[in-house]
Specification:
212 residues, mainly beta, three-stranded mixed beta sheet, 1 helix, 7% helix, globular
């Protein structure tokens, strides 16, 4: 994406997605109940799971106008307006942490069919500038899972507990947790596939601290 500011927006949205209902997943009225998963045994219904594919907004917000009047060094400016970004879908000129450093950002997808592995994570609405982004994973909807439920798994890492590689992953009968509420309280506590090296859903935590 090329923008630290945009990555921060995406990371914040992903952390929100794993803890509450949102556009990225469907919330079941039967959340917390159990369902027969066939060969997988009895699997609890997660609060957040992707029952159906969704079409993303084709409209996209903008950071224009970007004020560059005070830029003495223009070496980091790769675009000055949205119209400069023509190499992909819905190109937008995005300022980094300050307007004298810009980059183009594009939608990676509009529907799940545009993505090779996981689904298309949609921006919240047509006024949001965040890109529609293809995620990795093993499923796009519940129908791809033998156990029936496909959920967003996001593992915060690093000094700032940011999310780098969110995935949509099937739940299993071996899961140690189904929802974030199953895990003990912490600074950033989460339930995710692969937490602590497990090959199933497990609890994890991350404590952000400032970099000197």
């Amino acid at each position: 994406m090329g923008s630290a500011l945009l990555r921060a927006r995406v990371a914040a949205a992903l952390l929100l997605c794993v803890s509450c209902a949102g556009k990225a997943h469907e919330t079941s009225a039967d959340a917390g109940a159990t369902a027969n998963g066939g060969a997988c045994g009895t699997v609890r219904i997660p609060k957040g799971h992707r029952a159906l594919a969704q079409a993303c907004p084709t409209e996209r917000g903008s950071d224009e106008p970007i004020d560059m009047s005070g830029c003495m060094n223009r070496a980091g400016i790769t675009c000055t307006k949205d119209a400069d970004c023509t190499d992909g879908k819905n190109g937008r000129c995005i300022p980094h942490n300050e307007p004298c450093d810009t980059a183009c950002s594009y939608d990676e997808c509009l529907t799940d069919s545009d993505c090779a592995l996981g689904p298309c994570l949609c921006r919240t609405n047509g006024a949001d500038i965040t890109q529609n982004k293809c995620l990795g994973g093993t499923c796009k909807t519940d129908a791809d899972c033998g156990c029936g439920y496909c959920s967003l798994s996001a593992v915060p890492i690093g000094h700032g507990c940011h999310v780098e590689y969110p995935t949509y992953t099937c739940h299993t009968a071996s899961d140690e947790c189904t929802d974030p509420s199953d895990c003990a309280d912490g600074i950033v506590t989460y339930c995710a596939y692969g937490a602590s090296g497990a090959e199933h859903w497990a609890c994890g935590s991350c404590v952000p601290f400032p970099v000197p």
